[in-house]
Design brief:
Length: about 350
């Protein structure tokens, strides 16, 4: 395998090179973070990186690599003299696969090498098999988005396993919170995939069409409040909903509105309002979700489709690009419409559902 070493201490760097070369691996070596980022573009199979380096430190390097489609899936292991678990949690949150504490032995190096690469390949093979089975859109970037939450889950479990006899109660709570956050994000991504393919089966005639249901303004409020709580922005949510009984199953409307409101919070700053309004006119219930984020161009607003992602450079976790496509499918299958517009005033985006009512 080709392994990149990013380490500013010459003795440590040389020791790593010697261990890996003797065991049949090819190495690339960088003495600082900037050189390491450059060499990472050559697609190594794994990266060992020191944390405490002058200039760009290990966290800066990891953040840069995870932000690039060409390097973000490379297994990444920190080398550190630090033993503070807060540093470990920070690295796992950014997407590190493991830590190796100095001084280390040859056996520790080889064990980490085998464990991390094998785990990474197994996950990637499973996800790529899923992509093949589901006839994914060419260019859809599922693999990274589905695997990222697992890094926190697996990393947290690894720390607990290694220190089960020493870890204190408060530290355990923090690690479990990290694991829960990763698992909940994984659940949200999985539910979006399930809902998308469920709707595609209905549209293609493989399943019966939607039955008219009894969604109402409370369904819209519940979905909006759930996303506001998840984003920790309850005070930014503005709800003004008229009474209405909609001809769409409540579970579908809940998902569709929730995903649109989730986008509104994700792409706008804390402290700016996200407005969700609903009004009934001529047997049509019009739901508007308005945020004050960067908005979309007219061309982007017209290009809603599954796996179409917007503003990915702004987000550490850009998602799958399914929310708006699901919202449109739900509206159309219910005999309504879903569109994106510019707000009446100021920056941002307005998402509009027009749905039939009883």
């Amino acid at each position: 395998m080709k392994i990149l070493l990013i380490e500013d201490e010459p003795d440590v760097r040389q020791t790593l090179q010697d261990i890996l070369t003797v065991n049949g691996h090819t190495t690339l070596a960088a003495e600082n973070g900037r050189e390491g980022i450059r060499l990472a573009s050559t697609s190594p199979d794994l990266i060992f990186c020191d944390i405490a380096m002058p200039g760009l430190d290990g966290y800066d390097v990891l953040t840069h690599l995870k932000g690039s489609p060409d390097t973000r899936d490379i297994p990444f292991v920190f080398l550190t003299a630090r033993v503070d678990r807060s540093d470990q949690r920070r690295g796992m949150t950014l997407g590190a696969d493991d830590y190796l504490t100095k001084p280390f032995s040859e056996r520790e190096i080889l064990d980490i090498l085998n464990t991390r690469v094998n785990r990474h390949r197994t996950l990637r093979e499973k996800i790529e098999h899923l992509l093949e089975e589901r006839r994914c859109v060419v260019g859809a970037d599922w693999s990274h988005e589905l695997m990222t939450p697992l890094a926190g889950v697996l990393g947290g479990l690894h720390l607990i396993e290694c220190e089960v006899d020493e870890i204190d109660r408060e530290e355990l709570k923090k690690l479990l919170a990290l694991i829960r956050a990763g698992a909940e994000r994984q659940e949200r991504l999985s539910l979006k995939l399930v809902r998308h393919f469920d709707l595609e089966q209905v549209k293609s005639g493989l399943r019966p069409p939607l039955n008219h249901g009894t969604a109402h303004e409370g369904t819209v409020a519940e979905a909006s409040l759930k996303m506001a709580r998840s984003a920790r922005r309850e005070t930014d949510l503005r709800l003004r909903l008229a009474n209405g009984l909609l001809r769409v199953p409540s579970v579908y409307l809940h998902d569709a509105v929730g995903m649109v409101v989730e986008n509104a919070f994700q792409f706008s700053l804390a402290g700016t309002p996200v407005e969700v309004t609903g009004r009934l006119r001529d047997a049509v219930y019009r739901i508007e979700v308005v945020d004050r984020g960067p908005g979309l161009t007219a061309e982007e607003r017209a290009s809603i489709r599954a796996f179409r992602q917007f503003h990915t450079a702004r987000l550490a976790q850009p998602g799958l690009g399914l929310g708006l496509a699901i919202a449109r499918s739900v509206a159309e299958l219910a005999g309504g419409r879903f569109n994106l517009e510019s707000p009446d005033e100021g920056p941002g985006l307005k998402a509009v559902f027009e749905l039939p009512c009883y």
